[in-house]
Amino acid sequence: MSEPRGADDIVGISLLSIEQWLTRHGYSVEKNIKITGKAGITHEIGFYAENPSEGRLIVVQRPLGATVSEDDIVRLFAICLDVDASGILITAQPNITKYAARLANLYRIGLIDASSQSMQVNVVQELLVRNKHSKGPQSLV
């Protein structure tokens, strides 16, 4: 049985494996960038990936123990629409409210349990395929 990892190691591995997978599939990855959206608002994005044929992807890293709330999901969805991203992934320890999980599913926001490295690539692939067929995140407008 392997030794437990620290929280920083788990999230670091999660982001690294996602970055490697995206790079292998033709995405260019940028970190800590500022993007001005259609509304004229400049958003600071920690992890941003773009592929000319697949679109833009935002990956959000939540700190260990932080709860992902409904407000977090709605805020991220608004950013996604503003910067015309085709998807959002949230990587965190599994701490999300029941209603936030429902909203994430409705808005096609991928949730990755950073402690489960084997599930990370599957979530990325599923999100990209699902959003490609639906032309990006679900819009209610």
Which key features would you list for this structure?
141 residues, Trna Endonuclease, Chain: A, domain 1, five-stranded mixed β-sheet, 5 strands, globular
Characterize the structure shown.
- The protein is an alpha/beta fold and 141 residues long.
- The protein has a single domain (7-134), classed as Trna Endonuclease, Chain: A, domain 1.
- It has helices spanning 7-24, 70-82, 98-106, 117-134; strands at residues 28-36, 42-51, 55-61, 87-92, 109-113.
- A five-stranded mixed sheet has the order 1-2-3-4-5, sandwiched between helices.
- It is globular.
- The termini are far apart.
Residue share in β-strands: 25-35%
Query: Number of helix segments?
Result: 4
Mean pLDDT value: 76
Q: Helix and strand succession?
A: HEEEHEHEH
Structural class: alpha/beta
Q: Could you name the CATH class?
A: Alpha Beta
3D shape: globular
Quote the distance from N terminus to C terminus.
50 Å
CATH topology: Trna Endonuclease, Chain: A, domain 1
Uncertain runs are: 1-13
Short description:
41% of the residues lie in helices and 26% in strands. It is of the alpha/beta class. Helix 1 packs across helix 4 and helix 2 runs parallel beside helix 3.
Topology:
Layout: H1 7-24, E1 28-36, E2 42-51, E3 55-61, H2 70-82, E4 87-92, H3 98-106, E5 109-113, H4 117-134
Parallel strand pairs: 3-4, 4-5
Antiparallel strand pairs: 1-2, 2-3
